[in-house]
Amino acid sequence: MSEAAAHDDHHDVQSTGLMRWLTTTNHKDIGTLYLLFSLTMFFIGGSMAMVIRLELFQPGLQFVDPQFYNSMTTMHALIMIFGAVMPAWTGFANWMIPMMIGAPDMALPRLNNWSFWILPFAFLMLLSTLFMPGGAPAGGWTMYPPLVLQTGDAFPYLIFAIHFMGASSIAGAINIIATVFNMRAPGMTLMKLPLFVWTWIITAFLLIASIPVLAGAVTMLLTDKFFGTAFFSAAGGGDPVMFQHIFWFFGHPEVYILILPAFGIVSAIIPTFARKPLFGYSSMVYATGAIAFLSFIVWAHHMFTVGMPLAGELFFMYTTVLIAVPTGVKIFNWVATMWRGSMTFETPMLFALAFVVLFTIGGFSGLMLGVTPVDFQYHDTYFVVAHFHYVLVTGAVFALMAGAYFWLPKWTGHMYNETLGKWHFWLSTISVNVLFFPQHFLGLAGMPRRIPDYAVQFSDFNMVSSIGGFVYGASQILFVVVVVKCVRGGEKATDEVWEGAQGLEWTLPSPPPFHSFTEAPDPSSITGGNR
Amino acid sequence: MSNTNADYYVPHSSHWPITATVAIFTMFVGGANFLNGGEAGVYILAIGFALFVYMLFGWFGTVIGESEAGTFNGQVDISFRMGMAWFIFSEVMFFAAFFGALYYARMYSVPWLGGEGSGAATNQFLWPEFATAWPLFQLPEAYAFATFKETIGAWGVPFYNTMILLTSGATCTWAHWGLKVGSRKHLIAGLSVTVALGIIFVVMQAEEYGHAYQELGLTLNSGIYGATFFLLTGFHGFHVTMGTIMLATILGRCIKGHFTHERHFGFEACAWYWHFVDVVWIGLFIFVYWI
What is the C-alpha separation between B45 and A477, in angstroms, rounded? Predict the structure, then answer.
């Protein structure tokens, strides 16, 4: 061991108080910061959703003016995608990947700190636009020109905030790739990696390949607005549709960035509580790879109605429905894992099961939208809103909740309150369906998205949906109660925590030591993801 | 790979990342304020930039110090290599967005404006006078944009610049060879020539921009041709400038006696970056200037 490293080993935490958190290079500290940040953003973005549901409770304009309403939908999406779900996954990755692969920490610890600390500043910038002349961005999170170019003073702040959070994502992705490919304990071969690690590596590649394209797209918006370029102006030979192509080249991989780690978590939880090995481990890995590859050649299914040539419509329709094959493999494997398992239904398992059922509903409505002539009918209606909330709320967010309940005892050393957890689950699951299921009907009946007012025939379903929304929003406070109680005390958790739990992270104490594996684990203890 | 994880260097805390964040945040706020017409913007931007430069010296200085002290084992070195390689890949994808815009404009949107394929109605009802061409001298609404009569030909300065960058790639590799065989003289000579060629490239590119703006009337405001031309070549020129600064830093370190013939990740990272800007230039030369 070198002199410097030996010296540093005696100083686990060099700073205390705020400085400890600002300067930390520890993967668990940074993971905690990511998760707390994400939870904060979840509530800020959530309160914007409450404003939206409040305004839609009845037809007519009651509470907010249309401009502010549109800024709520725009900001809600940006905050939930870039501020809540993505940082949550990175937080899970930070906490779990070094422990799962038998590493002491992440490969690039200072870069890791930087990836996190960008986020609060980027979102400070984004949230400050709410108070600027012209209001917050209101042209939708997809930032289509020419509409988005009409944003007021908020515009450059929006662009720079996107650049900033993009830098954070790329740095985080690079770190995860270096960690997984360089820091695995001896004996931890690639095909023994837990699926959460596999799905995250593939997510990291998606991030590195797609986020810079978003950076390019918003840079073109910036120069179109301030430097006279004509990328998206037909008058100058450009094309506003070109933005949509570049944006969705990023945007479609992005939706898999949001969901692939969820697949990984569910693939960890279902075998644990079914007390059976995961069915079809290697097919899960290949299916994830196939989904990631396909995600780069389906982007224009977001723009079927924009006036593409027929060949484009057909190509993107076929590639899109092709994604159902690897996704179906996954759903099949999860169900087969449970087949004849000795299942118990603790909160993480409940959320994982709800994920499988409800994500599949979102997947089916996605198939409907993927069929071009059908999409002509559904495009930009509430059917689309229902679809992506089924995959992102009952998909990504439910998997996040499942993962949080699954690993909270490992992180804190205490068991969470199972009764409260179950209350949280049942309230969330019932209310989220009351919230989003009627939106399918609204969409099929023709209610457009992104409007503060609507025709009276949509009143009943909107009121039902809003009631579901308020209950869902309120039930999330229960989650905070569970987390706080669990951090402060509770029944002592064992190392293994769950009876059927497999993997290196469960060989460490609960809570684990500051540095995960200062000595590499015994290779014979590594049984692999297909155990 | 080492069997004991304790050899892997995990720095315990660092204020440089948060300094970097504050610096960039300040630059963004200053830049946004400037773009919105604020008076304080440039000053805020300058403060942020100063802090950013300070951070670069501090953060890289710390890492260089650790490296020279032998803190990093082979496994840490591999992490750095993976980090740099995938960072360069992310840069490739950034350029891909602009190349994609160029291809889309040339292959689809400009021909459609001219009435090809599904664009017949657009041409007929909006701009019946418009004819497809590339370079696009006649814009659909010419009055709204700067008009230009001529573009920068491939076989003048761009060709010389191609030769300069290709030569600099070779001198960079020569310097690397010098480092590997332990010939510091070759190393320093090779790097010095590389840095000088980088500077010459940037100066010639700047001259060419002046020519385009003042004599040809080709500006950022020259429709889709000017937009793709200046953003592609401009971001490339910015990357060459960064690469030159990086190589100059490495040159300084070589003169101070840093690096050994087997451990010189810093050198290689900058060399990779240099070859990357080289390859992007080949793409630019072919697709922007030549065909």
Answer: 41
Q: What is the pLDDT of residues A228-283, one digit of tens each?
A: 999 999 999 999 999 999 999 999 999 999 999 999 999 999 999 999 999 999 99
A236/B139 Cβ within 8 A: yes
Beta-carbon contacts of residue B260 (< 8 Å; ≥ 6 apart): none
In a domain, A479, yes or no: yes
Instruction: Give the three-state DSSP class for B113.
Output: helix
Report the CATH number at residue B53: 1.10.287.70
Q: What is the pLDDT of residues A51-70, one digit of tens each?
A: 999 999 999 999 999 999 99
For residues B19 and B99, membership in a common domain is answered with no
Nearest CA in chain B to A162: B28
Query: Quick one: B66 and B78 in the same domain?
Result: no
Boundary residue ending a domain (B39, B57, B72): B72
pLDDT at A4: 40
Chain A: give the shortest CA distance to residue B87, in Å.
7
Q: How far is B230 from B220, CA to CA, in rounded Å?
A: 6
Domain count, chain B: 2
Instruction: Please list, in sequence order, all residues whose beta carbon lies within 8 angstroms of the beta carbon of residue A227, skipping any fewer than 6 positions away.
Output: B220, B221
* Structural domain harbouring B260: 74-290
pLDDT for residue A14: 60
Q: Which of A15, A111, A212 sits opposite B93 (nearest CB)?
A: A212
In chain A, residues with a C-beta closer than 8 Å to the C-beta of B219 are 228
* Chain A residue at shortest CA distance from B31: A156
Contacts of A238 in chain B (CB under 8 A): 105, 109, 223-224, 227
